[in-house]
Amino acid sequence: MSKTTKEFQTEVKQLLDLVIHSLYSNRDIFLRELISNASDAIDKIRFEAHSNELLLEGNSDWKIKLTPDKAAGTLTIRDNGIGMSVAEVEENIGTIARSGTKAFMQTLKDKSATDNPELIGQFGVGFYASFMVADKVILETRPAGAADAGCRWESIGDGTYTIEECRLEQRGTEIVLHLKDEFKEYLDEWKIRSIVKKYSDYIQYPVVMDITRTETPKGVDGTEIEGAGTIEKTEEQTLNSMKAIWVRPKSEVTEEEYQEFYKHISHDFENSFRTIHFSAEGINEFKALLYLPNK
Question: Which of 3, 44, 226, 283 could form a disulfide with 164 if both were Cys (CB 3.0 to 4.6 A apart)?
Fold first, then answer.
């Protein structure tokens, strides 16, 4: 398949215009949505691999990697999840068949909803949040077990996109956001850390990033070598705790954390009616977290 330029469906164009220009003031949610999508992709391959272990391709070191590049002005989000074929990319992004766009737009009309960051996750249209901060988005993806079925998708959010087949060595999905000048703060370590901590701390897979620090070389005894100058050392660090919220003491969990986790697992855009978090000890010990929805 050669590189082809196509138009988004009308409803998708309307959604892009809303997301880019008027719907949300809290633009931090774009990263939450992309990390959540990456987590879902890993969930899917873990499930599929129960019946077909070959899909793992020897790679079950699950992680979601964030790579800010200040020189290029890009933020990359990569996962080693299930991946997508060309047909799946077109179905999930270019049309309303699976994206939930039509239902999303109707909800906005019915509720006159504005600045509700949960709505975009409720209908599976979180990918489009990328265009709140980026003027170009490039997606490369390959489905598990199909080395020759890679896909490259690109759009500047103008109502069209290009798509083509490509060969990719690794399974999974990589999204490169070319950030607008006014949103380059999303390349700063502190900003990325704060968003992951607030919105994605409970994600069960490591959300990692390469961190570079300047330090003085040390001798075998652990002391700094005098006059050795400094060196830069880069290490991959995990940004989220990955600690299940229900095993943490109630006193350490905020109401905001309870509700963020509820919305993540339920895809509900409203807070739960009630949260019940308890533990029992005896012959058998267990911890439980129950939510009662508003509906």
Answer: 3
The CATH number for 4-207, chosen from 3.30.565.10, 3.40.50.720, 3.40.960.10, 3.40.630.10, is 3.30.565.10
Name the region of 145 (left: φ>0; alpha: ψ -120 to 50; beta: rest).
Answer: left
Q: What is the pLDDT of residue 95?
A: 59
Q: What is the pLDDT of residues 94-107, one digit of tens each?
A: 655 455 556 666 66
**Closest listed residue to residue 154, CA positions, set 132, 174, 183, 133:** 174
Coil, strand or helix: which one is 32? helix
134-142 β-sheet, strand order: 4-7, 160-166, 150-155, 134-142, 172-179, 74-79, 64-69, 207-215, 231-238
State the helix-helix crossing angle for 189-199 and 29-49, rounded to 10 degrees: 60
Count the neighbouring beta carbons within 10 Å of the beta carbon of residue 44: 15
User: pTM, whole model, 2 decimals?
Assistant: 0.79
Coil, strand or helix at 140: strand
CATH of domain 245-292: 3.30.230.80
pLDDT at 176: 98
Pair 93, 127: CB distance under 8 Å:
yes
Q: How far apart, in whole angstroms, are the C-alpha atoms of residue 37 and residue 41? A: 6
Query: CB within 8 A of 178, min separation 6: which ones?
Result: 72, 73, 74, 134, 135, 136, 137, 138
State the Cα–Cα distance between residues 3 and 152, nearest whole angstrom.
9
- Lookup result for tokens 């992004």: 93
> Which H or E run contains 262?
helix 255-266
Q: pLDDT tens digit string along 241-268?
A: 887 777 778 888 888 888 878 877 776 7
Cα 139 to its chain centre, rounded Å, is 13
